[in-house]
Records
---
Amino acid sequence: MTAPNYIEVRSLTLRDLFSGAYVFQLPWFQRAYAWQTDQVSRLLGDLFSALEAEGDSAEYFLGTLLVCRPDGSTETALIDGHQRAMTLTILFSVLRDLCADQSEKAELDSFVKSTDYHLRPQDVQAEFCKTYVQQMGGTSLYPEALFEQLSYSERNAINSRDFIKERLSASEISPEMRTRLAKFLADRCHVIVHHAPNQEEAWVRLRKEEETRLDFSSVDLAKASLLSVVQPSERDQCALVWEEIEGLIGPNDLYFLLCHLRTLKSRRARNKPLEEEISHAFKLNKNGLGFMTDVFLPAARRVQALRAGEAGTSAARDLITQLCRTMSWIEEQTWVPVALCWLEQHGDKHPETIAFFKALERLLWMMKLSLEGPERLHPRLMKVISQIENGTAVADMDSLVIERKMQRKVLEKLRGPYFDRRAYRAEALRRIAITEGDDPGPIDGVHATIEHVLPRGWKLQNAWRVEFPDRARVDAHAHSLGNLTYLSFADNNRAASQEFVAKNEIYAKSEFKMTRDIAQQATWVQSDIEARTERMIALLFADWDLKVS
């Protein structure tokens, strides 16, 4: 009788995981690297929060990996856990390249490679990962290809890499703090590794897990869990109120509204299941119907008013709707509990409602553009909520004040030579466009694409070489904010790398005001690009009642 195949389970620190005992190989059909800056930001925020809260005794669990490694070999097929393994490789690579101490640099490099690189992507991605992430100094290099020509995985790897590098090289992150983070990652961060006896068994188990996983949405699970807590005599009425709420705002906003109500009640990030915290916080076992009718339903009506453009006096509605929309471009939900708190405390007809929403929108955008992560954004928004509940006038809310340090960080990002590679580049360009009264809509690849007036590509025999005679000068200006505008996909293809005079004929007929304005220019030289960058920044800051310094 054959013994059954069992999966061996081990808990490992990252020092153990990246010791060289495992050389992870990704199967050719492995899913793409899909983590983007939102996921990376949350990971960094959680890591720093754990360090700040618990110091040197902090521990952090990074999830599970499913692998197959033959006995006596280091060659390890990474069946499940690609996203975490790649992100951790990027994180260690950035920490290494930012480190000045040579012995510490060498130790950090050992988490990326020993005799071989500890993570080997598929053949088509391996050289890219080695060049721009894994090799010493690789995180400071940029691909020769245009960003849009990179694969989905490659674009995400570059974006994640650059986001981590910017966060860890910020002025408030000292070399000592990076050293603490590196040691914390190495010895206090753990993963659970599931060892399958062979690849076939591993894939079968992963497939069975995915196929048999209960297809039950978060909303359905929350509904079933919360209604099971309320008194049986109230259950039918509570179910009817739930259905009314779902009809008002839809299942996605309903689930997030529960999250917002938890936030407003607890004021801090929690790790327990949402349903458990809502049940305890609002005592659903004793007052389930009261919660549904007096808390949940009124809050849902306020969300519906925000989404439908019905908040505020008739004269203010369009502006409030626009402010909510521009916040949603960069954060779909984070700002909502703050807005709900204002509407609950003051109503939408309060004379300071417009001033409040303008200040909230400005704060959210400034924090996102300065790359403040959730570990800083969440406490800041909680302070805003506290000041709302204390009845503080908008002009006196220090939580809404934009500090000079934050302004300097945002200006540095907006003026930077590689603005078009930054997070929120498309959203920022759109936000500037609406200050001129022309919303071009989202970048969708058909109706609207981002056009680089000075072409990014390099050809020596080109009219642009008169003003931009070498690649360095092209790179210093082609990716900057002032060189970006909108064109349809068809017009972008027509414009291509043509000289400025030829492009201007296309720009003059564009449906986008921002682009038609460029057609008024007689030249497009370095000073024109720099001047336009400053004009765009001035428009944005004036809309936020800020001074450009």
---
Amino acid sequence: MNRTTAMRENKKRLYMLGALFIIVLLYFIFSISGKLYTFTDNITVAVVTGGMYGDNNMCQYLHPLFCMIIKVLNPILPTADVFALLMHVALLLGLFLVSYMTIENTFWKPIKKWGIEDYIFFAVLLCTITYFVLGFKLFGVNYTVQSAGILAMGLITLFYARYRGKGKWWIAAGTILVFFGFLGRMEACLLFLPYIALELFTEFVRHRDRLARTKEGIRYFLPMLIVIIGLLGSKALFLNIEPYKSDAAYNNYRTIAEDYPMETYGVSYKDFSRVDHSTYLMVTHWILADTDLIDTDALERVATVGSRNEFQATKQGIKGTFQDMKWMATKQDIHLIILIFLSIVLTIWGLIAVRSIWLKLEALFSFGGGFIILFYFVFRGRAPIRVWQCTLIACLTNLALIMIKNRIDRRERARSIEQGDMDIQHSVPIFSVVFQLFLCIVLYFGIGQVLAHSSVHAPTSPLTARIGQDDSGYAVTFEDDALYIWPGWYSAIPDYFSKQDKLPTQQVIEHNIAIGDWVYGQVYFRDFLSRIGAENPALALLDRPNTYLVEGKHDIFLQYMQEHYGESIQLEYSHEVNGKKAYRLVRHSADNQLPNNTED
């Protein structure tokens, strides 16, 4: 090994150590200042995949292969939230690679030859990594956003490897991250497909030797495309096998009826005679406990007669969509505002500071495409904050790649005309320096605001999420084989344990269920209900001993039960559970035990 090669290898080791130091330090700071479960959806996914409902852990929102991997690891790591652990491992791998790229892309020349732009560029990249870990708290956000973050870092790794001519290990690492991203919330990753196509197209057209670029593209990106097609195809195949085919249909109609806007019963031109009023109210208020009557067919009828867009395709509707977008962009969340701000500033930077017309167009289409995607979801009425975050992360991924490509292009141009490092420095537009300094200040502010309002606590880890929980607040529910049905399950059970950064205990899961949630209509939950003797939770309130309905939406539920199972059914107050009233469901006369189904 000659001296030059040895020096290059030593530099790589130093870069790796630097990247490792960055992610270990940031992860430790997150573990003592952040929350493992910022969003309680993560807890429900962990409960399902962790086998707490039973041996079948096929969560419909994850790829079945991911659930299989988790199922294999569960007995090996009995104290861990394996789902969160795997997501964290993938995030750490991505952050390590991005940190390595940050160091390599700034220390390619000696520090003594750095100009002001080099110092600021390094600060911007470092602040960006720090912001997403400590400010945005990527390790604790909704698993949908985590999947988007993993995929984003995989794409950055692959395209950076292509720009710098990296070898097979970089291709493998980037492809693994893409693989893990699509194993998670696939719907979030599908938002990236237009951006992937845009980046590949730009790479093809902006170089003269397109045949050579195509061959290189096949080498770097074919494994990624095979992984994406394979995972999409295998999940589609899985969902065409019973019982998962029927479960998927149930979930699709439930999603329409519960997550999207619905008409007020009986006030539109649609034929509401296909579904009775009480059933319509039950479904649209997330009450699915009557598993006999509220089945796939009932959900389809509700979704069919009530589904609508949030806004109409009129001038007033378009105006309303823009107003809703404005409110969301400015009032909802400080981190959403920061993501929007970053995407706007990076787009402006791309349009002004980048030489290549193709890169300028890519910046414009990246931002414009994100705007169109968000407009569509707001217009439809299904644009929660995680949809905004995923779309903006996809947009920022392409804009970040433009920044990296522009810097690499400048470096290659300087080398091709045999100019020195100082010439590169002098060629930097003053706008780029000011722009990057401004970004650095904003990111620093975002990190500081979060840490200023954070408190230091004992380190948390997915490895210990299933031990050391305090479930004393629900101890009363464990007595006499009791079962409590919660209208406000998320604000009770997951919220109670998320404050401890723990998963619920098995006892709590066995004795406390939701009155309606996305676990309904799935094979794992049907098996669970059968095991605890409550195949139909609504009827279990009448027939199963020590079964209680907790307050919240109980008036809607009572109206439904009286209409379908007997007018004499009443709620009787029993006691309190963790500050909530618990009721018994009782009959005051010998009503017909069969349901009074008025739908026919």
